[in-house]
Amino acid sequence: MPNITGHTELVGLMAYPIRHTQSPVTHNLAYDKNGDDVIQLAFEVDNDTLEPAVESIRALKMLGSNISMPNKTVVHKYLDDVDEAAGLCGAINTVVNTRDENGNVTGKLKGYNTDGMGYWQAIKEEGIDFKGMRMVLVGTGGAATAIAVRGALDAIKELHVFNIRDKFYERGEEIVELINKETKCKAYMYDLADKGKLKTEMQAADIFCDATGVGMHPLEELSNIPDGSFFKEDLIVTDTVYAPRETVMMKQAKESGVKRVYNGMGMMLFQALIAIKLYTGKDTDVAYMKERLGI
């Protein structure tokens, strides 16, 4: 960890809850490795306090901030510009305080989404060619939407999305419609309460992802999957949760004989490394980061 000086620049992480996060460890390892006088700190920010928190990026001349639940789908309202991919999926997880030709931050904030890229890069790192695969995805929040859109753009063949009928369900229907309109992927939307349909689609799928907060604090004792019979041994099972490292859902899958079960650490790492490059312009040694983080 670098010593904090009068020249140290700040990157934030704005979410709620957030004290469980691994992100500052990841970012600060990378900044140290790259020789950057930069530090990331986590701030508990929800929708009610998001606007003044974003304004603090300008006021404090921060390099930017990562954005997580529940702010990903609303932060765009407080930004000056949004990257095309982030605009397409309607969710932002990285806000960059853009720089001028002299390298100074300008106060003009631009939003990006590195979640989808991070998730699929982590899959590639496991030697999995996901093109042409059939996916079941639980969730329609910011991370889930980014995974869905990026997967569809990168040649997932079919996408079967499940979500509870909450305020995000309609948004899920809109994303499914967008994917069917803008990509070659065939996408479908279902009510997560229909466990029979969920089981049928999971049995027919190549890859499964739970992209909800179920499995992390305060829901660490819960799973969206009723029991192990929903899994098949050759299914690729992923969870976007990384704290705890093994969720109830992951345990169910392993106990059912599934061999390829992955938590959210890979996605967390690669979305972070992409964001770090947006902040500093530097690539980071992936092998070094995996070794230090125990991935």
Automatic annotation (TrEMBL):
InterPro entries, per the entry: Aminoacid_DH-like_N_sf, NAD(P)-bd_dom_sf, Shikimate_DH-bd_N, Shikimate_DH_fam
Q: In which pathway does it act?
A: Aromatic compound metabolism; 3,4-dihydroxybenzoate biosynthesis; 3-dehydroquinate from D-quinate (NAD(+) route); Metabolic intermediate biosynthesis; chorismate biosynthesis; chorismate from D-erythrose 4-phosphate and phosphoenolpyruvate: step 4/7
- Residues annotated for shikimate binding in this entry: T21, Q22, S23, S68, N93, D115, Y242, Q271
Q: Which domain of life is it from?
A: Bacteria
A biological-process GO annotation? shikimate metabolic process
Q: Does the keyword Oxidoreductase apply?
A: yes
Catalytic residues as annotated in Swiss-Prot or TrEMBL? K72
Q: Name one Pfam family in it.
A: Shikimate_dh_N
| Annotated NADP(+) binding sites | E84, T240, G264
Q: Which reaction does it catalyse?
A: shikimate + NADP(+) = 3-dehydroshikimate + NADPH + H(+); shikimate + NAD(+) = 3-dehydroshikimate + NADH + H(+); L-quinate + NAD(+) = 3-dehydroquinate + NADH + H(+)
Q: What class of enzyme is it?
A: oxidoreductase
Residues annotated as transmembrane? none
Key words of the record: Amino-acid biosynthesis, Aromatic amino acid biosynthesis, NADP, Oxidoreductase
The catalytic activity of this protein is classed by the Enzyme Commission as: 1.1.1.25
Protein's job: Involved in the biosynthesis of the chorismate, which leads to the biosynthesis of aromatic amino acids. Catalyzes the reversible NADPH linked reduction of 3-dehydroshikimate (DHSA) to yield shikimate (SA).
Q: How does it assemble?
A: Homodimer.
Q: Which HAMAP family does this UniProt record tie to the protein?
A: Shikimate_DH_AroE (MF_00222)
- Name of this protein: Shikimate dehydrogenase (NADP(+))
Q: Which organism is it from?
A: Mogibacterium timidum
Q: What is the gene name?
A: aroE
